[in-house]
Amino acid sequence: MHEKILISGCFLGQKVRYDGEAKTLLNPLLNQWQREERLVSVCPEIMGGLSVPRAPAEINGEEVITSDGDNVTEQFISGAKQALTICQGHNIRFALLKESSPSCGSNTIYDGTFSERKIKGHGICSQLLREHGIQVFSELNMDELVTLLDK
């Protein structure tokens, strides 16, 4: 039996992003993992109750604020908790999530000013998963995940 991997739904072509688009990740390994039924797809923002499309959101201090000024922190936290529950239910130890997302960013996020400037940081979901021992990777360091899975 293969180890399951939590993955951002947008990587699999699901149009769940704030702008109604996907960020399909074309990689032969993903195709293989799908055939092996290893991938567990999530979008924490949708799971938290946000719609598609929606205003873009960025982390500003301890809150997640949309470009319209709405505080959507609770929805982001709710989605993150649901993603964690899924991981715990499937004994998932690894996640492959979209870099720079306010939910899924594992190394960088936008700076909270909607100026398209990125800073070091973690999205709400990535942080919660890490706090519970789940290793989070992005499309930028997927090779590290592959190395761990091969061990």
Explain the overall architecture.
The strands form 3 sheets. Strands 2-1-5-8 form a 4-stranded parallel β-sheet, with helices on both faces. It has a two-stranded antiparallel sheet with strand order 3-4. A two-stranded antiparallel sheet has the order 6-7. The chain starts with a strand and ends with a helix. The chain is built from 5 helices and 8 strands. β1, α1 and β2 form a beta-alpha-beta unit. The model has no long low-confidence stretch (mean pLDDT 96). α3 crosses α4. It has one domain. It has 151 residues and is of the alpha/beta class.
Put simply, the count of helices is 5
Amount of helix:
25-40%
Task: Describe the main β-sheet briefly.
Answer: 4 strands, parallel
Rounded to an integer in angstroms, the radius of gyration calculated over CA atoms is 15 Å
Would you tell me the overall average pLDDT? 96
Overall 3D shape: globular
Number of structurally distinct domains: 1
Task: Report the span from N to C terminus.
Answer: 15 Å
SSE topology string: EHEHEEHEEEHEH
- What share of residues are in beta strands? 15-25%
Structural class: alpha/beta
The strand order across the widest sheet is: 2-1-5-8
Low-confidence stretches: none
Strand elements, count: 8
Task: Describe this protein with a few key phrases.
four-stranded parallel β-sheet; 19% strand; 151 residues; 5 helices; alpha/beta
Brief description of this entry?
The protein is 31% helix and 19% strand. It is of the alpha/beta class.
